[in-house]
Amino acid sequence: MDLSRPYVNFRKQFGKQPRFCEVPVHLIDSIAPNKGEQRKYCLRNTVNQEVQTIISKSENEVNTHRITSQEQGVNHVEGGWPKEINFLDEEITSRYRHRVEREDTYVEVILNQYENFEHYLKQNNAIEMYEMFYKKMPHTQLIEKSALRINSLLRDTDNRPIACIGWSCEDNPKIVVAYCNKKYPIRGPINSNLSCYVWDVEYPRAPNDEFYPPSPCWEIACSPINPSVVVGGLEDGTVCIFDLRSNKNADAKSPMHLAHRDPVSALVYIQSRQNNEFFSGSTDGSCKWWDIRQLSNPTETLIMSVNAVQGEQATLANSEGVYSLQYDRAFPTRFLCGTDTGLVINVNRKGRTHREMLSAVFHAHKGPVKAVHRSQCTSKMFLTCGDWTVHIWSEDILSSPIVSGIPHRHQITDAVWAPQRFSSFMTVSVDGKFRYWDILRKYREPVAVLPVSKNPLLKIKPNEEGRLIAIGDGKGMIYILSLSENLIIPGDRDRQLMTQTYDRETRREHILEARVKEIRVKLKSDDKAAQAATKASPAVDLESLLKTTEEEYRRVVSEELRRAGITPVSSRGRGAEMRKR
């Protein structure tokens, strides 16, 4: 490639041709200094100054002294006795004590210690060591300063919504997270990446482990005895078992023809001898019990049909979709079921009939019951979360909650009791805020509020100690929150005060319920009396009633006309006159 360019010009336009040659040095011009101008200035010493536009920093290294600490205990029962003396025998010890007191060395030692004894006795007499100073001052309660802090973030690279969160059972528990978009696929599958992660709280940069379900995973449940076993509920209605020690894929999966018809929306471990049984719920309206050792067939199936006619068999056609489940090991045969129609069903597996199994029905919310949890203070009380409210219910009262929550501006997506505090619970909502509530401290507003994310928060799961809270949002972020001590450790009287609060609210609801029943009975009795009076009254002749009313009206009109001086004309005379005209 030729990049040259020719340039053509006349020689005369170049100017005079320079001719270089060596010549001796000669002075062209010399300008002498001006003495007058020199007197206007003075000489100054040279000054060096550094200028920097950034903040100067320094680095120092210091080797501190290492202090070695150890714990050592001493159990002092009674010492100073010879080996041949049994200090448990009072007679032998008193005999030996009298023999030592007769020795001359004993008297000398006592006399030598006399000055020290006298000094400490005078010091004790001069200073009252056991005096209670400021005893009359009023007692002030300690100020509880609530603090919330985000410790770490666990980020998903694909920004998938959080479907479920679980904590493993080990000394350093790990977080098991299922990612899934639960929207109905209209134009094709919306979950391309099906992997689930296991995170270590101490190393939040990358997942500690991962496993791959065969279809999108909606729910997970960690084994209560084996931290490497995870149960998953899938979008196609099946359940599967993962053993993270051997394989990243599912080790066992339930058959499709025996699975749920809808995605698995709830999954809970139950109490058994070997802790290998769990049960699942789905929006198709059924609950199924499974055994990890054999997933080929569910051990039991229960249809959540509260509207079934007595005597007819319950079917999925009239069932209520299961949205959340709660199981307490204190009640092996009972559990709570939250439906997608706003009902909470108290289920007893040992009931003889279907109605006895579904023993109680609570109309909790106007939308799906997204969470239901029993109180650790008393097992009769439980917490429900749905629509824009959080309520606290009692099993003895079906009509209304004993503690009604305040409606929020944004929908509440999940709620859970504080693991250690008896009067506290936590909620997350669509506005991205975490709220900590305490019924004893503040009844109508949260104790602490923390803006966690700009995206909607979907799930919340605390660990067993209650010191760390895992919160998931709609963009695949897991936020690990730590709470202050006053939000973790309960007060000395919290359990007693909370039990009294529950009893007081339950008694109030009983009184209101009895009053409502009295009003309804009275209204029914009044309606029956009115119906009886109507039946006892004789039949009224409608024609005679209209005739009497018309005559009364004519009489009143004629009287008014006479008072005005107008001669009244009867209707017959008026008609004859009109005919003449």
Topology (SSEs and partners):
Layout: H1 35-39, H2 90-101, H3 104-112, H4 114-126, E1 148-155, E2 162-167, E3 175-179, E4 196-199, E5 209-211, E6 217-222, E7 229-234, E8 239-243, E9 252-253, E10 264-269, E11 277-282, E12 286-291, E13 300-303, E14 322-327, E15 334-339, E16 343-348, H5 354-357, E17 358-363, E18 369-374, E19 381-386, E20 389-394, E21 412-417, E22 424-429, E23 433-438, E24 448-451, E25 457-462, E26 468-473, E27 477-483, H6 494-536, H7 542-563, H8 571-580
CATH class division of one domain: Mainly Beta
Residue windows where pLDDT falls under 50 for at least 5 positions: 571-581
Rounded to an integer, what's the Rg over CA atoms?
46 Å
Helix fraction, binned, reads 10-25%
Give the name of the CATH superfamily of one domain.
YVTN repeat-like/Quinoprotein amine dehydrogenase
CATH architecture of one domain: 7 Propeller
- Estimate the mean pLDDT confidence: 83
Count all strands and give the number: 27
Strand content: 25-35%
Q: What is the first-to-last residue Cα distance?
A: 128 Å
Enter the CATH topology name of one domain. Answer: Methylamine Dehydrogenase, Chain H
Question: Tell me about the biggest sheet?
Answer: 4 strands, antiparallel
Tally of DSSP helical segments: 8
* Strand order in the sheet with the most strands: 1-27-26-25
